[in-house]
Design a protein that fits this description.
The chain has 262 residues and is of the alpha/beta class. Helices cover 42% and strands 26% of the residues. The protein has a domain at 86-261: Nucleoside phosphorylase domain (Rossmann fold, 3-Layer(aba) Sandwich), CATH 3.40.50. The two termini are 18 Å apart. The relative contact order is 0.21. Bound molecules: S-adenosyl-L-homocysteine. Residues 17-18, 62, 87-90, 178-180, 198-201, 223-224, 226, 230, 234 line the site of S-adenosyl-L-homocysteine. This is adenosylhomocysteine nucleosidase.
Length: 262
Amino acid sequence: MNTTSRAQARPLGVLAALPQELGDLISAMQAESGVVTRTLGQRDYHVGTVHGVPCVVTLARVGKVAAAATASALIHAFDVEGIVFTGVAGGVGSSVHIGDIVVGETLLQHDMNAEPLFPRFEIPLLGRARFDADRALAATLADACERFVTEEGTALAAHFHTAMPRVHRGLVISGDQFVASAQAVGGLREAHPEALAVEMEGAAIAQVCHEYGVPCAVVRTISDTADEHASTSFTTFLTDIAGTYSTGILKRFLAAYAAQSR
Ligand code: SAH
C-alpha cells in the first residue's frame, strides 16, 4: 500500500460518552458497510464506513479519565486521522439556551488546580491550560450544525416551545463534576467569563490529541443550564432528543467530510 492510499484509508474516530449521544450512527454504519466490533479496555470499537467516511465509533463513558483512555486507544490501536466528540452539555454563557448547539474552538479543564506550583488551570508540565480544536474540523462541524438548524430547527423549536436553536462557537470547559447548582455554574462563569458550555470529557480528549498531534473537534447540544434543574433537564433531553441532534449533525458533518477527502 503506498503512502497516499494508506493515508486515505485512515479512519476518523467518532465518540460520545453515552449511547443516546451517538444517535443512529452505529445502525447507519451497519446498513452502509457492515460493522466489525473490537473490544478493548471494556469498550466496544465499531469499525466500518458511515455516510461515506471510514470511521471507528465508540463510547468513552463519563469523565476525563474515561475520555482520555478512549482517545488514546483510538490513536494507538486504530490509527485514527482525527477525533470528533459529540454529546450534550450544560449551558454556561448567558446567551446559551437549552436546545442550542456549541462547537468547541478552545477547551479547558476547569477543575485542574496545581497551585501554587503552576498557574490555576494550567496542565502541569505542558505549559498550557487551553487546547484548540482543529480549525478545519471545527469549521466543517459548525457548518453541519448550521445546516441542521436551518433544515430541522422548526421541528426542534416546536419541541422546546422556544425560538429557533442557535449555533455558538467558542470555549468549552470540562471537569469531573456534573454541574447542577446556580452557585456552581456562577463560579464557573466568574472564573471563565467566555465559557459557553460545561461538560465532562472534551478538554481531556483535546489534551490527548494535542500531545499526539491528532486533530480533534467537539460538538455539544445544550441539555441543561447547569443549575438546580440540571439533572431533570439533562435526563429528559437525553431520552427525548439528544439522538435527533447527533443523527442530524453527524450525517451532515460526515457527508461534508467525505466530500472534502475525495
Ligand atoms: N451516566 C449518567 C451520568 C451522566 S453525567 C446518566 O446517564 O445519567 C452527564 C454527561 O453529560 C457527561 O458526559 C457530561 O459531559 C454531559 N453534561 C451534560 N450536562 C452537564 C452538566 N450540567 N455538567 C457537567 N456535564 C454535563
